[in-house]
From TrEMBL:
<keyword id="KW-0812">Transmembrane</keyword>
<feature type="domain" description="Phage shock protein PspC N-terminal">
    <location>
        <begin position="6"/>
        <end position="56"/>
    </location>
</feature>
<protein>
    <submittedName>
        <fullName>Phage shock protein C (PspC) family protein</fullName>
    </submittedName>
</protein>
<keyword id="KW-1133">Transmembrane helix</keyword>
<dbReference type="InterPro" id="IPR007168">
    <property type="entry name" value="Phageshock_PspC_N"/>
</dbReference>
<feature type="transmembrane region" description="Helical">
    <location>
        <begin position="30"/>
        <end position="55"/>
    </location>
</feature>
<keyword id="KW-0472">Membrane</keyword>
<dbReference type="Pfam" id="PF04024">
    <property type="entry name" value="PspC"/>
</dbReference>
């Protein structure tokens, strides 16, 4: 993780936040997307969606 976080619009499904996070950490983008959906449905709900939108807007 030596590089700065940036959205990855070439692999984006919505805004590129999950794809950018996957590129930044070196993790699998599908695992990150599934994790975000799981957090949204089972744990954090609107907080996870709000965080996603804020990161997408701020990293633009």
């Amino acid at each position: 993780m030596t590089q700065n976080f940036a959205l990855d619009r070439s692999n984006a499904k919505l805004m590129g936040v999950c794809a950018g996070f996957a590129r930044w950490t070196g993790w699998n983008v599908l695992a990150i997307r599934i994790g975000l959906v799981a957090l949204t449905l089972f744990a954090l709900g609107p907080v996870a969606l709000l965080a996603y939108l804020i990161v997408g807007w701020a990293a633009n």
